[in-house]
Specification:
about 100 residues; elongated; about 45% helix; alpha+beta
């Protein structure tokens, strides 16, 4: 039936996405080094993937290649000024915003 075909197609798409995600995760250890505007941050794939539809969640789904430098760092072309706040939010699910 048409419904079964739709379910089969969706199942195939989900399996393909899982395979891409597995490939990306296997290409990295659990730890990830990010170069954010020249400042190096260390975190984990789990932290960055906490919100699957976010920038970082999508980054680690395997939809595009992740280019690393000779030290294995992923470059993020953004200011590092508040990046620690973003990481802490992903880790703790609470935003501790600076007073200034």
């Amino acid at each position: 039936t048409k419904r079964e075909q739709q379910v089969d197609l969706k199942w195939k798409q989900l399996n393909e996405e899982k395979e891409r995600m597995d490939k990306v995760r296997k290409s990295f250890t659990n730890r990830v080094k990010l170069d954010v505007g020249g400042t190096i941050f260390h975190t984990t794939i789990e932290t960055l993937s906490k919100y699957p539809d976010s920038f970082f969640g999508i980054m680690f789904k395997g939809h595009f290649s992740l280019n690393t430098d000779s030290e294995g760092r992923i470059f993020i072309d953004r200011s590092p000024t508040h990046f620690d706040t973003i990481l802490n939010f992903l880790r703790d699910n609470v935003a501790y915003l600076p007073n200034d």
